[in-house]
Design a protein that fits this description.
This protein is an all-alpha fold. It has 11 helices and 2 strands; from the N terminus they run H-H-E-E-H-H-H-H-H-H-H-H-H. Helix content is 78%, strand content 2%. Strand 1 and strand 2 form a beta hairpin. Keywords: Membrane, Transmembrane, Transmembrane helix.
């Protein structure tokens, strides 16, 4: 039943053209424009072309907002005034919630992977081990979907949940040094290296892209997975009350 529900969820997501434009077309457009500006410049610190770093930041950065898929479908199907139609079916609410979560994780990760392949074919971005990049995208997608699931279940006002979700992405980008460099020491240095999901994803991808800091890359994946487990436990506890 969950797999059948996931199939229909996938069809609904494919009809969400606005979300596809925001989370798929927009990052590709930004990569194209910024890549043209960067030209053949090299990132001296990482030893890779600047277009590579642009692609990594944009694709992983927009992955943080993929959690809005889970947030919107959970609200629409299980929390809004339409929820009684779902509760009247011989299908438990928590099963449908799991179906939504599973589909959104896979869809968001594959959306990111599509951009990875696009940038590799059209812009010559060397991603290293493509299979490992997919693992990173899945890990980041799992965490982001669970974060937004907790927000929609735990925050009473949906608009506030949306604002917190947006802040989650913006703060992660700021800590990752997307707009301005972070200090090389102290708490902010730790937060910019291991204290936000975007940096963790970048650590893992750059480990294979540049062939260095493999231990940092592996540790980053472990942190993402541990954080996901914590978020899953919290979501289970909140969901038992909210969806009962």
């Amino acid at each position: 039943m969950i797999l059948r529900s996931s199939y229909f969820m996938l069809r609904r997501m494919l009809r969400g053209y606005l979300a596809l434009i925001i989370l798929l077309v927009t990052p590709l457009a930004l990569i194209t424009v910024l890549g043209m500006v960067a030209g053949n410049a090299m990132d001296e610190q990482l030893g890779v072309p600047v277009i590579n770093t642009i692609a990594v930041t944009m694709i992983l950065g927009f992955q943080l907002y993929g959690g809005f898929y889970t947030m919107e479908f959970i609200r629409e199907d299980l929390i809004s005034s339409k929820k009684w139609r779902m509760y009247s079916l011989p299908y438990q609410a928590h099963q449908h919630a799991f179906s939504i979560l599973l589909t959104c994780i896979a869809f968001s990760a594959l959306q990111g992977f599509t951009m990875v392949l696009f940038t590799q074919w059209f812009y010559g971005v060397d991603w290293g081990n493509i299979g490992f990049v997919l693992v990173v995208l899945l890990a980041l997608s799992i965490l982001s979907q669970l974060v937004f699931l907790n927000l929609v279940l735990g925050v009473k006002n949906y608009k506030n949940a949306e604002r917190i979700g947006t802040a989650y992405g913006l703060v992660s980008m700021a800590l990752a040094g997307v707009w301005f460099p972070m200090p090389d020491s102290g708490v902010l240095h730790f937060m910019s290296t291991y204290g936000n999901p975007l940096s963790l994803g970048e650590n893992a991808v750059y480990a294979f892209m540049a062939g260095e800091s493999m231990n940092r890359g592996a540790l980053s994946i472990v942190i993402l997975l541990v954080a996901s487990v914590v978020m899953a436990i919290v979501a289970t506890l909140i969901g038992r009350r909210k969806l009962a």
